[in-house]
Design brief:
Protein name: NADP(H)-dependent aldo-keto reductase
Strand order of the largest sheet: 3-4-5-6-7-8-9-10
Keywords: Oxidoreductase
CATH superfamily: NADP-dependent oxidoreductase domain
CATH architecture: Alpha-Beta Barrel
Order of helices and strands: EEEHEHEHEHEHEHEHHHHEHH
Helix content: 25-40%
Shape: globular
Mean pLDDT: 95
Radius of gyration: 19 Å
């Protein structure tokens, strides 16, 4: 698996990134270390985490994932130099007061969060430090419309960039990125960085999958023209695009046990738990089978082969899932199949936006 460059940076990452938000909740530490070992052995060099993980977010597990990764990195001399390590500073609390006091995300918050991540990860530098969600009010996590009346921003983007610049100058962060952003947000971060000589964002981490292709509605042009790379998360639509819920909805008695969407009500209340999302996923899954592919393989191949995607973030709970996701690399989708995918989207649009 060859590496690609993220945006205007020298970060050489694999086009598949291991997401880790299950570590510390669904995945115990020993198993998490085994998954990390196996991913590295199979050629994956890119890891993504966040200060608020594990998910679903709870005060008891906040920071647990970073700590698990930190102990894994500390276990073997030289291991840190073999991976590109990305983590995130949480935006405004969104009902998670254990992350920080207050409703905003100040420059001081950014610095304090970075220091905490460095300690938990047991490293001197974070390769890619991302703002997990915007400090300002935006339509995200299932919210459909932008509403100016809900604006609560307290820290201008320029001030956020200044804080990130200080971390870069101190050698604690190499490059910066965004997550769950809008076209306006990406453009404004780049504009201000270029105007004031501040760090230029190299990537944006947004949802992208068959049941949520909203990235293709303007943000893809923004990122292409500005040289900002997409890190696509939830390529399997929180498991809906694996086919495991085709016979039984997540809350049905016959549904697979142990999956996040089945176990946690907070997850089901979000975009992935909508009946429309499941209905759309079932149509895509049936299409995959009609073309001799597993739903998982088709959904991942869709992300792996799209020009918009620099690296696809996969989240797993076992070595077997990791192998299945990695084995999908190299799968191509025929023009006929891609046309059929687009025909379904024309009807159902993006139910998991």
């Amino acid at each position: 698996m060859q590496t690609i460059r993220l945006g205007h940076s020298d970060l050489a990452v694999t086009p598949i990134c291991l997401g880790t938000m299950t570590f510390g909740e669904q995945v115990a530490e020993a198993e998490a270390h085994d998954i990390l070992d196996h991913a590295l052995a199979r050629g994956v060099n890119f890891l993504d985490t966040a200060e608020m993980y594990a998910v679903p977010a709870r005060a008891e597990t906040c920071g647990a994932t970073e700590s698990i990764i930190g102990r894994w990195l500390a276990r073997t001399p030289g291991l840190r130099q073999r991976v590109v390590l990305a983590t995130k500073v949480a935006g405004p609390s969104r009902g998670m007061p254990w992350i920080r006091e207050g409703k905003g995300m100040t420059a001081a918050d950014i610095v304090a969060s970075c220091e905490g991540s460095l300690r938990r990860l047991q490293t001197d530098v974070i390769d890619l430090y991302q703002i997990h969600w915007p400090e300002r009010h935006v339509p995200a996590f299932g919210t459909l419309y932008y509403d100016p009346a809900k604006e609560t921003s307290q820290t201008p983007i320029h001030e956020q960039l200044d804080a990130l610049a200080g971390l870069v100058r101190a050698g604690k962060v190499r490059y910066v990125g965004l997550s769950n952003e809008t076209p306006y947000g990406v453009h404004e971060f780049v504009r201000l960085a270029e105007q004031h000589g501040l760090p230029r964002v190299v990537s944006v981490q947004n949802p992208y999958c068959l049941i949520n292709r909203t990235y293709e509605n303007a943000l893809d042009e923004t990122c292409h023209r500005l040289g900002v790379s997409l890190l696509a998360y939830s390529p399997l639509g929180f498991g809906l695009l694996t086919g495991k819920y085709d016979q039984h909805a997540p809350t049905d008695p016959g549904a697979p046990q142990g999956a996040r969407i089945a176990r946690y009500e907070s997850v089901r209340k979000q975009r992935w738990g909508r009946p429309e999302s499941l209905a759309a996923a079932r149509r895509y899954n049936a299409l995959a089978r009609e073309h001799g592919l597993s739903p998982t393989r088709m959904a991942l191949a869709f992300c792996y082969t799209k020009w918009q995607v620099a690296s696809t973030i996969i989240g797993v709970t076992s070595r077997a899932q990791l192998d299945e996701d990695l084995d999908a690399w190299g799968t191509t989708l025929s023009p006929e199949l891609l046309a059929a995918i687009d025909a379904i989207r024309w009807e159902v649009r993006d139910p998991a936006l």
